[in-house]
Amino acid sequence: MKRILIVEDEVAIREFEAINLKRVGYETVEAGSGEEALEIFDNDIKGFDIALCDVMMPGMDGFELCKELRARSSELGIIMLTAKSQEMDKISGLMLGADDYITKPFSPTELLARVDSLYRRVEMHSAKAKVTVSDEIRLGDFVLNLRRRTLTKNEKNIELTQVEFQMMEYFFTNPDTALGRSEILNKVWGASYYGEEKIVDVNIRRLRMKIEEDPSIPKYLVTVWGMGYKWNTAE
Questions:
Q1: Residue 2 CA to chain centroid, in angstroms?
Q2: CA 179 to CA 176: how far, in whole Å?
Q3: pLDDT digits 0-9 by tens, 100-127
Q4: Where are the alpha helices (DSSP H) in the chain?
Q5: I need a surface site. Which of 51, 82, 99, 131 has the fewest CB within 10 A?
């Protein structure tokens, strides 16, 4: 069963989300606050594939909840829901570890498209983790282990979300090759992704913070102006 944790303080909106998700086969668990969501997440024995988190909630808001959930799981898919359209709200959620965002108001079609797209990525990541191969890709100080789904730098583990790992896998299998934003979006998020290309840029920023000594002057994950990004192996 595909399981999703819905976190929304407005009952009508929460019920709207749950009804539409149940219609297409998701098992939903509802929480009216960030604090309740964390309690459910910590005590649930089945586990969740996706968390759908409203940003504007009393007490623990969606940003803090996203941060806490991501600290607990790198594999959980997280979608932020916000009534605000400001760019910084979207970027803030993504930088804290969210995989996607939806701006309110949204239609059932958009909700299901975003959730289904993220669920497919989570499932793909989980399926690949079970493959009994021991392939490793070594590029300089970095080792990407395709079986364990891990990345290390100088033998130190770098914690990645499932989206970040898929991006690194794409770069590592195409070193020193400029990859356009649309190429990365199609490869990682899928051709049917409903959102915008800038989600690629935010995830690049997030990756640089994890792998670069100075994220403002990247040495490995570099920008190819007018084209996109590439993994640089040159010393």
A1: 17
A2: 9
A3: 989 888 999 999 998 998 898 778 766 5
A4: 11-23, 34-43, 62-72, 87-95, 108-129, 162-172, 181-184, 198-211
A5: 131
